[in-house]
């Protein structure tokens, strides 16, 4: 046994001589209880030679020697080490033996024991990944879990964990031994504790400057066990510890920090001398003077230890849900929620009597709050439903009633709905329900106009569901297409993740009355309508977002290829069906149709004065798309009503609205004359049919609206009418990213919308139970982008404040949590006619190499991929050169709501609708410089840094004075630009071919020292390439070269092989390129 064991008890646990049985007897006990024989004597000597402890007490409290006859048993004469009791050895041996016995008797760990333990435990994404790794044996995973369980119970005995030395005094790191080589690395850390803090409502109502709070901000912090790493090679412990220290040293630079103080030990309930209990901390409002700092701790988020990444680390609760998934070793793709900030936690768990409005700039966590709140409600409901084994939510029998006019002065926040119950109230009133009451399962709906974002959020929800024991079996396992009608959707297909177009199609098919589109009996479209077919709006680029990293598994390639073949057959069949369908004679008026076809015919005397995008916005957002217009039989505001709109709500064309209304009337006439329709026509049709429904066959309880700024008031009114519990609606967005053509939106106006819905539309009935939100909650900290990117974005917001202050909601300036690299202006990219086609090709090739060269392994990205090329519109995407087509190419609108490590903004200014309008930025810059120069004489406070050398350069753009009537188009362009640059987490590269149109903004960025500028010489000589390519190894460059070769991009492949130092392959690639050029040359003269 000793020879097989080989000195490593972890390798052969059953053969471990330190094991004990259920009576607590070790090997020495068994030998001592046996009669004396030559064999038992040799066994005693062997155990002594192998240093097996003879000092272990069994459950009777006896040592092995207590079973021997002291008078004549020769075994008592064995070496003294067999009899001498070493207290430390006894404790260690008993502990190890107990652990072994637990592992033998309790192989199936109950994950529920991890709930409500003394200690809260969290782990890094790396630990979560290791525990999901199929290559790690289940036995080892169980051992890891048992060790962590002991720690969480407070059993920090010396044989279980040992403090690591040579670490900074502020970082308390420990190791737990798993085997001779393997260790768990954990920290005694401090983290926000939701379970100890006050509830979400109390935390949100506290103002930060209130002095009389019992607990500052209602937030309590606690010591936690933070599992940083699991190493399987003892030599890698040092490297792991250095990464932890690096995360702390980088986190110390965070601009958002708090001071916390420990609660006195006397205030903590003792748990016994043998158990360690966590210390509790409160936020301190003491000034950070020398004396107070000695008793305070600095609390700040930690940054990634990777120098090329500038974002906070995510941690996961090591709870019953995580443990259950580790033990089950599931093969499906799964994920668990990461730990959010204290404010995000409050928003996710807030119990509100009114709809929740959430405003935040890009990267502040709006979509996470939206998804996690939906997820939390979903899990809570199904936990109750499983326990009750029935549907729980009662449906209103009387769908509409005639209500009196609601008193406008009444405090709507304090009112409660008498008509419907929220899911949390069902238990109180269940006994009161009459027999025959219809009950439903919870039906939730997530809606956003961005089809890519919608699909990504659905994918994340599916991964969360796969990891939850409670709901895993109630969510459809297969990706089933939604039926044509809502009443045909099964309970297991909820929540629905949907775009407004798809929802409108389903509502049109589901409601009574003549459908807007002609339907078959199954609800499908009888005639093809361009832009509105069931197949339109497919997520063409979604599959590319699954490219998580360079190390993706390729074991399912054959299955994928088969799936592709099957999908091609389906697509062929679908295309055949489409060819057989009739075509609807009506056409939709999109903005493109309006600008290119309608506008030239209705604006003969106004075409030079007004931009079509602004006229389109005025019609779709106010004249036809406002909440008031929805109540009109005509479907639009009268001229008097339009003229009376407030200037803040509709800032454009004040004083010129009579002209705008005349243009609208011409548009309306032209539309009816040419058999055209717009989206508002369908919205109003569905809205009127829905409000006339007296008996519903289906129900939607909760609606979550993401990117709310893309919706018109008319669409939001429809969602309010559709939602069974309108006070549980959740709306998140950012008006600085309002880039949807035809939409003018401010969160300030949402309260007015709810108030109007409550008071002016009382005849509809459903709106009488809508409470008006008292406040808009704000997320102010950006967790996506670093300070380098946010400084650039902030400068764009400065322009919006200067030119269009009423077009978006103002928020506190976000400086960013961590510093980071400056965005890059690729100034080399002027493609005038004097530049040859070869130079053009060379520059495009360099861009391709820069992008592919910077592919990296990175931390998990919630919503997006690693790199993307962003363009203005579909036409711009078609013009992207072939050399860049291996990358993910998205329009700015498609990318909205997503995040990427690196983005290349390609030809934004060249494809911009603004031309000379950009020159107003030069005028603003010169005024800014003048203001700075004058103010420097008195004070430097509040001034921006200006590089005066920029003004000395030749060929500067000419300044243009801003005209609020002539330059409105710049509003939308600035919002597009802001949205684009804030997609990035690490790098932003801006490339543009149009020298004239890019010049004002390029100069503005350079003058404010916000960018690093790279010339064509630097790109070609690779003097700047290291900044992009430092994370790519020689092997990775060669891999990229092979990829480009497969796609016949030989020039780019040659550059990759050169950087990969494979000069032979470089010559081959260049030879292929020469042959390709020669073949083109021959073809040209044929």
Automatic annotation (TrEMBL):
Residues 84-104, 410-432, 550-581 are annotated as: Disordered. Residues 578-740 form the UvrD-like helicase ATP-binding domain. The keyword Thylakoid does not apply. One of its GO terms (molecular function) is helicase activity. InterPro entries: P-loop_NTPase, TRANK1, UvrD-like_ATP-bd. Keywords: ATP-binding, Helicase, Hydrolase, Nucleotide-binding. It holds the Pfam family UvrD-helicase. Residues 550-569 have a biased composition (Acidic residues). PANTHER family: MAMMARY TURMOR VIRUS RECEPTOR HOMOLOG 1, 2 MTVR1, 2 (PTHR21529), TPR AND ANKYRIN REPEAT-CONTAINING PROTEIN 1 (PTHR21529:SF4). This is Lupus brain antigen 1-like protein. It comes from Magallana gigas (Pacific oyster).
């Amino acid at each position: 046994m000793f020879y097989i064991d080989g000195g490593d008890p972890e390798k052969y646990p059953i053969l471990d001589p330190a094991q004990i049985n259920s009576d607590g007897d070790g090997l020495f006990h068994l030998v001592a209880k046996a009669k004396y024989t030559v064999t038992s004597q040799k066994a005693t000597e062997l155990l002594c030679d192998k240093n097996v402890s003879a000092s272990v007490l069994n459950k009777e409290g006896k040592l092995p020697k207590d079973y021997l006859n002291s008078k004549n048993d020769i075994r008592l004469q064995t070496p003294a080490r067999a009899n001498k009791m070493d207290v430390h050895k006894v404790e260690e041996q008993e502990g190890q033996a107990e652990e072994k016995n637990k592992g033998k008797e309790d192989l199936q760990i109950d994950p529920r024991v991890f709930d409500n333990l003394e200690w809260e435990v969290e782990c890094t994404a790396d630990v979560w990944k290791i525990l999901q790794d199929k290559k790690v044996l289940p036995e080892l995973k169980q051992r890891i879990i048992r060790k962590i369980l002991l720690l969480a119970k407070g059993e920090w005995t010396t044989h279980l964990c040992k403090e690591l030395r040579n670490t900074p005094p502020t970082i308390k790191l420990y190791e737990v031994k798993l085997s001779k080589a393997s260790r768990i690395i954990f920290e005694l850390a401090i983290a926000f504790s939701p379970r100890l803090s006050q509830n979400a409502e109390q935390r949100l109502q506290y103002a930060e400057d209130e002095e009389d709070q019992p607990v500052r901000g209602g937030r309590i912090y606690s010591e936690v066990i933070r599992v940083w790493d699991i190493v399987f090679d003892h030599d890698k412990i040092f490297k792991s510890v250095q990464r932890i220290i690096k995360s702390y040293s980088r986190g110390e630079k965070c601009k958002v920090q708090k001071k916390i103080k420990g609660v006195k030990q006397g205030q903590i309930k003792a748990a016994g001398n043998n158990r360690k209990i966590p210390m509790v901390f409160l936020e301190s409002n003491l000034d950070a003077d020398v004396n107070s700092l000695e008793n305070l701790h600095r609390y700040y988020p930690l940054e990634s230890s990777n120098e090329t990444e500038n974002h906070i680390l995510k941690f996961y609760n090591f709870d019953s849900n995580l443990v259950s998934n580790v033990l089950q070793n599931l093969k499906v793709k799964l994920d668990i929620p990461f730990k959010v900030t204290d404010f995000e936690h409050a928003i996710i768990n807030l119990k509100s009597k009114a709809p929740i409005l959430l405003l935040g700039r890009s990267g502040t966590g709006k979509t996470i709050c939206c998804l996690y709140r939906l997820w939390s409600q979903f899990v809570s409901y199904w936990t109750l439903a499983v326990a009750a084994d029935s549907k729980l939510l009662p449906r209103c029998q009387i769908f509409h009633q005639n209500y009196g006019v609601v008193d406008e002065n009444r405090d709507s926040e304090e009112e409660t709905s008498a008509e419907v119950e929220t899911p949390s109230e069902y238990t109180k009133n269940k006994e009161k329900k009459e027999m025959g009451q219809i009950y439903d399962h919870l039906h939730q709906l997530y809606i956003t106009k961005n089809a890519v974002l919608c699909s990504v959020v659905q994918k994340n929800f599916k991964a969360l569901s796969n990891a939850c024991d409670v709901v895993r079996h109630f969510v459809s396992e297969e990706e089933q297409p939604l039926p044509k009608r809502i009443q045909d959707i099964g309970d297991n297909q909820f929540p629905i993740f949907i775009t407004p177009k798809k929802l409108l199609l389903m509502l049109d098919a589901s409601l009574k009355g003549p459908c807007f589109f002609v339907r078959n009996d199954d609800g499908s479209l009888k005639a093809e309508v361009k832009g509105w077919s069931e197949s339109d709006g497919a997520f063409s680029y979604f599959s590319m977002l699954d490219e998580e990293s360079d190390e993706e598994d390729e074991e399912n390639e054959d299955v994928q290829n088969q799936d592709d073949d099957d999908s091609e057959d389906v697509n062929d069949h679908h295309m055949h069906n489409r060819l057989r369908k009739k075509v609807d004679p009506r056409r939709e008026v999109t903005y493109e149709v309006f600008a290119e076809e309608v506008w030239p015919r209705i604006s003969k005397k106004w075409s030079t004065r007004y931009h079509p995008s602004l006229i389109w916005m005025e019609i779709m957002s106010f004249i036809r798309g406002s909440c008031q217009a929805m109540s009109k039989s005509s479907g639009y505001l009268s001229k008097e009503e339009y003229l009376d709109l407030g200037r803040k709500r509709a800032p454009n064309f004040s004083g010129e609205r009579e002209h705008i209304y005349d243009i609208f009337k011409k548009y309306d006439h032209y539309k009816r004359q040419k058999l055209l329709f717009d989206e508002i026509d369908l919205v109003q049709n569905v809205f009127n049919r829905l409000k006339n429904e007296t008996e519903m066959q289906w129900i939607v309880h909760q609606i979550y609206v993401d990117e709310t700024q893309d919706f018109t008031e008319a669409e939001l009114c429809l969602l309010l009418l559709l939602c069974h519990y309108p006070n549980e609606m959740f709306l998140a967005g950012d008006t600085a990213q309002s880039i949807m053509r035809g939409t003018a939106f401010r969160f300030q106006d949402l309260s007015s919308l709810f108030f109007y819905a409550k008071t002016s539309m009382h005849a509809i009935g459903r709106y009488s139970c809508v409470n008006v939100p008292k406040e808009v909650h704000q997320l102010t900290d950006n967790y996506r982008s670093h300070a380098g990117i946010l400084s650039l974005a902030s400068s764009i917001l400065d322009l919006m404040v200067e030119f269009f202050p009423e077009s978006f909601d103002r928020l506190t300036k976000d400086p960013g949590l961590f510093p980071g690299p400056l965005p890059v202006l690729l100034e080399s990219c002027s493609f005038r006619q004097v530049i040859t086609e070869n130079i053009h090709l060379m520059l495009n090739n360099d861009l391709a190499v820069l992008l592919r060269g910077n592919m990296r392994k990175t931390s998990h990205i919630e919503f997006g991929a690693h790199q993307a090329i962003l363009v203005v519109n579909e036409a711009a995407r078609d013009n992207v050169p072939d050399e860049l087509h291996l990358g993910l190419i998205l329009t700015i609108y498609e990318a909205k709501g997503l995040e990427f490590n690196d983005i290349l903004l390609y030809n934004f200014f060249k494809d911009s609708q603004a031309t000379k309008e950009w020159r107003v930025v030069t005028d603003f810059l010169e005024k800014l410089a003048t203001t700075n120069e004058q103010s420097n004489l008195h004070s430097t406070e509040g001034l921006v840094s200006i590089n005066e050398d920029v003004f000395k350069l030749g060929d500067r753009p000419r300044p243009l004075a801003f005209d609020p009537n002539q330059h409105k188009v710049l509003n939308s362009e600035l919002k597009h630009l802001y949205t684009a640059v804030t997609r990035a987490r690490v790098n932003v590269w801006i490339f543009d071919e149009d020298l004239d149109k890019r010049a004002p903004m390029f100069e503005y960025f350079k003058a404010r020292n916000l960018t690093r500028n790279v010339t064509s010489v630097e790109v070609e000589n690779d003097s700047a390439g290291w900044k992009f390519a430092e994370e790519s190894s020689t092997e990775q460059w060669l891999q990229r070269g092979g990829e480009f070769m497969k796609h016949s991009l030989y020039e780019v492949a040659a550059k990759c092989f050169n950087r990969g130092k494979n000069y032979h392959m470089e010559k081959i690639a260049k030879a292929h390129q020469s042959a390709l050029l020669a073949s083109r040359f021959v073809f040209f003269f044929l």
